[in-house]
Design brief:
Helices cover 14% and strands 34% of the residues. The chain has 150 residues and is α+β, with helices and mostly antiparallel strands. It has one domain: Jelly Rolls, CATH 2.60.120.10. Strands 1, 2, 3, 4, 5 and 6 form a 6-stranded antiparallel β-sheet that branches. The radius of gyration is 15 Å and the shape is globular.
């Protein structure tokens, strides 16, 4: 199934969910310069690729930052504490496993958001978007909105 970026469902960080499979997703990010976040960990694996801009990625325990710029790929394993700082408008593609917006997985697994119980709005808004529902039907996935885990 084809999904155009302009009509793809959006998440709270201006990401666009381009495609999803039963256990993997792909999203496109547009992040403005100066944006940053507190150290956190996610409950899924991430691999990404920078198309435009520049960001600094800090991985807890490595003792140094990595500059992410056009042509640079990165990997952040599930549960790894990390922190981003966007230095120039950033456009990147990211693959995730499992799907980040199901079962509240995009809430930080560790860090300030997890302790405070802050939830992202991925859940109902994204799961009910027509493109996500259409992709789910096309691949025979019925897990969206269900109580079961993927």
């Amino acid at each position: 199934m084809k999904v155009l970026a302009a009509s793809a469902p959006r998440g709270p960080n201006n990401e666009r969910y381009l495609a999803l499979g039963k256990e993997v997703g792909m999203r496109l990010f547009f992040l403005e310069a100066g944006r940053g976040d507190a150290e956190h960990a996610r409950d899924y694996d991430m691999v990404g690729y920078c198309i435009e801009g520049k960001a600094r990625l800090s991985i807890h325990g490595r003792g140094q930052d990595a500059e992410i710029s056009p042509g640079v790929a990165y990997s952040i394993p599930k549960g790894t504490p990390h922190q981003w700082h966007i230095e120039e408008r950033f456009v990147g593609v990211e693959g995730t496993h499992p799907l980040p917006f199901l079962h509240d997985r995009d809430r930080p697994a560790h860090g300030p958001g997890a302790a405070a119980g802050a939830a992202d709005v991925h859940g109902s808004a994204i799961e009910s978007h027509p493109n996500v529902a259409g992709l789910s039907a096309a691949i025979g996935f019925s897990g969206l909105g269900s109580g079961g885990q993927v």
